[in-house]
Amino acid sequence: MSNRPARIRAIVVAVLVLAFVIPWTYAHIAYAWPWKRFQTGTLISCDDKYLVGGYPNKPPELLGHLSDGAPVDFIAGGEINMGVETGDFGLAAQRGNEIDNFAHSPQLRLGESTTIEGVGTFTLKEAHSDIVWFTPNPGKATFCFDPDPTFTKRNYP
To answer: What global pTM score does this model have?
Structure first.
């Protein structure tokens, strides 16, 4: 009794697995690196707008105040997956002891915009993935922010 067919079958399976895993791994790692953005993405300009951004695991930053005086916090996250930059953000207002998570914009693509009534328009300028154990993870997202006339923005540098 020979183990030759089983050994050949194991080698063929190993080669097929490697033929899939290597390109898949390259695509997920390489396209997550910020330098790849300049080859695959579009540069967005924020002329006459404010630049806001953040990381998903960092504390939110004060964006400004609504017309009723409630402070608005901004938190954002982004990633590059297979060369596509996406970003999301959330807005929360504090009214007394209550936190009102009143807006969330999931998965905007590079250059896409969304308008939040009473706050303004956000356009995804760029996104970057963080790399942990060779896998893209949520990272930074930066948005061009055009405030609504009723929104009092914080003083930006």
So the answer is: 0.71
